[in-house]
């Protein structure tokens, strides 16, 4: 099965199967391909830089290019009644084929309940180390603009290390916490990550 077909169906099916409603509320209204994450040195995380002091959980991945899917919700109202405001509450990052992921076992990473605020960056260590403060400020302002929030993507996706192609993908978030579920095979190999936002 093609990943673009598999991922949205898998996320929607997993929401009740993994009992995610109790933590996160209703599932995303839309699930879209957000782009590809280029990893050159492992250590992938989804975090808000200003909240790094509260902790960041990184996951080691082999170098490669991996598809990313964003689930979003419309929390309205923008600058006027009825105007949409889209926020991302789910990120799915696939490191294996649909057939392999469908046979995996999902585990809730209890250590990965971390603080986020307004926006969150998906990146590898190389991309993070090569993103200057000025770029982060620009991406944050763009991410939280009325124009960006009023549409369901595309979200900022920028190469920060031209030599390797490592990039950062930035998403708006309305919740203030993020938890992670990870798909593992029988050998403990990481096959996919499912990031879920929520508020206490």
What does the model show?
The protein has helices spanning 3-17, 21-24, 98-102, 125-129, 133-143, 146-149, and strands spanning 30-39, 45-47, 64-74, 86-94, 105-115, 119-123, 157-161, 166-172, 177-184, 190-198. A 6-stranded antiparallel sheet has the order 1-3-4-10-9-5. It is globular and about 45 Å long. The protein is an alpha+beta fold and 200 residues long. The longest helix is centred in the first third of the chain and has 15 residues, at 3-17. Helices cover 22% and strands 39% of the residues.
Supply the key terms.
200 residues; alpha+beta; 10 strands; 22% helix; globular
Radius of gyration: 16 Å
Spatial order of the strands in the main sheet? 1-3-4-10-9-5
Give the count of helical stretches. Answer: 6
Helix- and strand-based class? Answer: alpha+beta
The largest pleated sheet is described as: 6 strands, antiparallel
Order of helices and strands: HHEEEEHEEHHHEEEE
The total strand number stands at: 10
Characterize the overall form.
Answer: globular
- What is the mean predicted local confidence, pLDDT? 89
Strand content: 35-45%
What is the terminal-to-terminal distance? 37 Å
Weakly predicted, low-confidence segments: none
Helix content: 10-25%
